[in-house]
Predict the 3D structure of the following.
Amino acid sequence: MPGIAGIIRSAPYEGIEQDLHTMVHAMRHEPNYSGGQYVNRDLGLYVGWMSHSGSFADCMPLVSPKKDTLLIFQGENYLDSETRGLLRAAGKQADEHTAGYLVDLYDELGDVFLRHLNGWFCGLIADLRARRISLFNDRYGMGRIYFCEGEDEFLFASEAKSLLKIRPALRTIKLESLAEYLRFTCVTRNETLFRGISLLPPAASWEFEAGTISGRRRYFQFADWETQTPLSSDGFYEAFSATLSRTFPPYATSSGQAALSLTAGLDTRAIMASLRSHQLTLPCYTFDGPWGELFDVRAARRITKLYGQHFEVIRADQDFFKDFPAFAQQAVYISDGTQDAFAAHDVYLNRIARNIAPVRLTGKFGSEVVRVRKLVPTLRYRSDLLRPEVHSLVEALPPFPELRKHVHPLTRVVSEEIPWREFGRVSIEQSQLVLRTPYMDNELVKLMFQAPHRVRAAGDLQEQYVREKTPELTAIPTDLGRFVSDNRLIGAFGQASRWALFKAEYIYLYALPHWLTRVDRMLGKMRPEQIVSGRQKWEAYRIWLTSEIAESVRQMLLNRGAHFTDFFERKTVEEMVARHTAGTHNFLD
């Protein structure tokens, strides 16, 4: 995955540059990446980077005209009008398709320039005149940086594996973090699965002098947004509409050819509406499974036909199943263990999507930012699955809503739930292409803190925006029944029935109880999965575990050399594998 990696220490050691090469090379997951390294022994800085070729940040390192500042940046940035004006006033011209202007922005503003950055990113500034190094990331923590702080060195990288490659002593699972992962499907706060490795907190700007840390500061606090004056419902919608129309189009027109990953939902429908209001057209595609066509595909085809846009369907077909073990291993490895084997399709589908366009524009996190949707579950496990020491740690953890429950709900979503739980999937997607979502644009997130709670809870903002900007799109219902009818009663019935079908499909594919699993098996020749599912969801891992990928799972989990027995009871795992692959039980979770 594109990112940075490096070593900061006061004195070098034999082989330090080879270690740097190893760290950087560990982040090369595709042959089309471009990268480089920079070494300054006087500063004690050894740093390298990886980029998607031709991307916004594929121009590193950046050096100031006076040769006294070096900036390494990975990720993307979206200029607002104020920052663009600051550059113009300084006589600087910003080419927004490349990161080159960032060093000019730093020269003009100093460290304050971090508050003017808008996107997901991480980076490093070497001030050669002041002999100071600054390590930073974005205000949400999506530009993740893992670090290990030793007595005489500071190791950092966008991927944990870069640290594990050169410091084998770090290859130890931290039981407390594993318990959180099992309970919440993520590790919380700034911890990781690995003992001795932590995460840089969001909006970090850590300074180093003479090879050691001299300051740990945050350049942004969400309290600045939480204390804004709330707007009225009408006033808020006017601001919301203007913000979407202003901020969304640049995500389609910035560096690199973009394609819209289109679904039937409101999140991408609102993106389409914002682009149409500016007469912008993108190629589109939709992901699909092996059973006919999802509602997403049918709706997306109608939308793109309406505007004469190029449209493709990307399917998880037999090629995916044939190479499932490799895709599963890549998903776990690329994400540093923050995603499981059932993210295998994210590698496969996004690799194909890259052939359509190197940039994927998506409506990801619209439901969480604009509406109210919680991401992090609280799971329980049977006592004979986990080793006693792990089970006791899992059971001691409170439900997720009780953790840091006094944090503002929106702050919790954008700076905790999304970066903690969703980073792994994002990292897999970003390993294959450049991923963009306008729903975490600073201007929009800042505005959402001014929304009356009932407005976010109602979830009508995007629907209203689509009706205003592109009324022709209201002839195509969404996946959950929006735009079914202008009649309130019929519309409510349409939404309720679609929601019921969605829940039924979810239960069938993921949460089917054991007794119904056996009924499903008995009806196997009738292909019930093609009747009950395939409308909203296609990721049928519960069923594939009994067919296409059953043997792969047996080889992984029944392997006598597998290390999972340090944490799980082998006998219980073997029983679960046997019963699930036989189709008599459902142990998907």
User: Anything to note?
Assistant: The CA atoms of residues 501 and 535 lie 8 Å apart.
